[in-house]
Amino acid sequence: MTPTIEDIRRAAERIAGEAVRTPLLASAALDALTGGHIYLKCENLQRTGSFKFRGAYNALASLSEEQRAHGIVASSSGNHAQGIAEAARLFGVPATIVMPGDAPAAKREGTTRRGANIVAYDRATDDRDAITASIVAETGAELVHAYNDRRVIAGQGTIGLEIADELAARGEHADLVIAPCGGGGLSAGIGIAMAAESPETQVYLAEPEGFDDYGRSLASGSITRNARTGGSVCDALMAPQPGALGFAINRETGARGVAVSDAEALAAVAYAFRTLKLVVEPGGAVALAGLLSGRVDAHGKTVVIVLSGGNIDPDILERALAA
Question: How far, in Å, CA of 289 to CA of 117, rounded?
Fold first, then answer.
């Protein structure tokens, strides 16, 4: 079932007091650089370091005590993993995360530190969905998918509500919102919120080149898989293909895709660190990269850039700054 704006409003009530209402920051530097009026929605400052906590907590809060008692299982390269681990810790229930063996160390450590058990797999040779399904069958645990889950999408949609509310309080509205995209849950949730609260706003979803299955799928009108399973510095955005639920929503709301190179994503990481004084991971910086590269024209427009996560390993940050 497709989530609605009412689902998102209920999610906002559920996560209030646990999730951070992250700041919407103006940037004079970006205004001068782009000729637009730029805001940054700083989900890198969210609990667990990414927007994923919103959807994870809403999903667990939507379950009955009996459902939670069997435990939670999810598959993730790290940000959804940490969101689920933290939400499960808060509810006092066990969580198992199916995670690729090459996931960043910071994300693995953050997941285990919050009490979740990791089951590692090989991106190139293993089927994570099959592994996850076998755990569900053996344990009776509740599956919380990273993006193809209405409860998760509703939780992510609270970002759109906050953007619309804060801009309205300033007497403004967004012409564009650009959000990073892996499986499409974030952009879908934001799209639902914007369609209801700010229908004149165009949503863009930003992806790494080579993993731009969403943009290609939107252009063709049908779901298209990525040819590769790994190889981008944007580890958070390497979903194999769009989730069916989010894809239907993104098509309905008229979302558009933009792809950026790994070099552009790393340049955005460096710009965020040096100029904006914000720590952002490559996958969390692709929307900013779309702006800085000129792939999205911001001239004369009010644009909101979603910085979706800040869980970056030190060596990747050093690589970005060196480049």
Answer: 34
Q: Where are the beta strands (DSSP E) in 62-219?
A: 72-75, 95-100, 117-121, 142-143, 176-180, 202-208
| DSSP-assigned letters across all residues of 125-151 | T--HHHHHHHHHHHH-PEE--SSS-HH
Q: Are 73 and 95 in contact (CB under 8 A)?
A: yes
Q: What is the 3-state secondary structure (H, E, C) of 214-280?
A: HHHHHHHCCCCCCCCCCCCCCHHHCCCCCCHHHHHHHHHHCCEEEEECHHHHHHHHHHHHHHHCCCC
Specify the pairing of strand 24-26 against strand 37-42: antiparallel
Q: 320, 282 in Cβ contact below 8 A? A: yes
pLDDT in tens, the chain (323 residues): 899 999 999 999 999 999 999 999 999 999 999 999 999 999 999 999 999 999 999 999 999 999 999 999 999 989 999 999 999 999 999 999 999 998 898 999 999 999 999 999 998 899 989 999 999 999 999 999 999 999 999 999 999 999 999 999 999 999 999 999 999 999 999 999 999 999 999 999 999 999 999 999 999 999 999 988 888 999 999 899 999 999 999 999 999 999 999 999 999 999 999 999 999 999 999 999 999 999 999 999 999 999 999 999 999 999 999 98
In angstroms, the Cα distances linking 65 to 60, 92, 135, 138, 153 are 9, 10, 20, 20, 21
User: Cα Rg for the chain, rounded, in angstroms?
Assistant: 18
Q: CA angle, corner 152, sides to 124 and 98, nearest 5?
A: 30
Return the closest-CA partner of residue 97 out of 146, 169, 138: 146
The Cα 179–Cα 282 span in angstroms is 13
Q: Is the dihedral of CA 86, 88, 93, 94 positive or negative?
A: negative
d(Cα 86, Cα 89) in Å, to the nearest integer? Answer: 5
